[in-house]
Specification:
The complex is a heterodimer of chains A (113) and B (113). Chain A contains no helices and eleven strands. Chain A is an all-beta fold. In chain A, the strands form two sheets. In chain A, strands 2, 4, 5, 9, 10 and 11 form a six-stranded mixed beta sheet that branches. In chain A, strands 1-3-8-7-6 form a five-stranded antiparallel beta sheet, with no helix packed on it. In chain A, strand 7 and strand 8 form a beta hairpin. In chain B, 35% of the residues are buried. The chains are: A mainly beta (113), B mainly beta (113).
């Protein structure tokens, strides 16, 4: 089975750094994704990790440790527009060609002035 | 290039009514999927398809049918709507491949009274 855990809510201050953690247990692993979702909108892709280590993309970075079943999303120089839900999603591996993504419940980030 | 198009954006049904949520993509994506999103539950996979003529069940398939007669279209059918199916529905697609990100449609807000 699959289990993905992330905090329900977080609060941070504009200009600061925030780290959103995600732990997972899946039957087979073929990559971890982070998505951003603003209220009332569709999720949009932020990052993808399949090997251990840090992937940096502008103000956003994502880290993966496969042995620990752990990932985090790091947001630097927070802006008010970063207030959104951040969704951790795992792609299980079943041995076939499928792009299934299993999502965690999401972390609602509130950025305060 | 329109991406993933979902219709309708909003729908109200009475219990027992049937309806079809439409999803179309113009990117020649092999993989298409349907999710529902409920407060506190995150995105849950309903059905998915890896190509025309091929469909499979996700985490919460009961009460929903799908078909994939063309690469472009992946409709979701509710045969007898129930209040428990009140949710926001998202269609998502991608090319096949472990690192390929899902691209989401704008969603359908469905209320079943």
């Amino acid at each position: 089975g699959q289990n993905i855990d992330q905090p329900t809510e977080m609060t941070a201050t504009e200009g600061a750094i925030v780290q959103i953690n995600c732990t997972y247990q899946t039957s087979g692993f073929n990559g971890l994704f982070w998505y951003q979702q603003h209220a009332g909108e569709a999720p949009t892709f932020l990052s993808y990790n399949v090997l251990d280590g840090l992937e940096e993309k502008g103000r956003f970075s994502s880290f993966l440790s496969r042995s620990k079943g752990y990932s985090y999303l790091l947001l630097k120089e927070l802006q008010m527009k970063d207030s959104a839900s951040y969704l951790c999603a795992v792609r299980p591996y079943y041995g076939g060609a499928t792009n299934k993504l299993i999502f965690g419940t999401g972390t609602l980030l509130a950025v305060q002035p | 290039n329109a991406g993933v198009t979902q219709t309708p954006k909003f729908q109200v049904l009475k219990t027992g009514q049937s309806m079809t949520l439409q999803c179309a993509q113009d990117m020649n994506h092999e993989y298409m999927s349907w999710y529902r999103q409920d407060p506190g539950m995150g995105l849950r996979l309903i059905h998915y398809s890896v190509g025309a003529g091929i469909t499979d069940q996700g985490e919460v398939p009961n009460g929903y049918n799908v078909s994939r007669s063309t690469t472009e279209d992946f409709p979701l059918r509710l045969l007898s709507a129930a209040p428990s199916q009140t949710s926001v529905y998202f269609c998502a697609s991608s090319t096949l491949g472990a690192g390929e990100k899902l691209l989401f449609g704008s969603g359908t807000q469905l209320s079943v009274l």
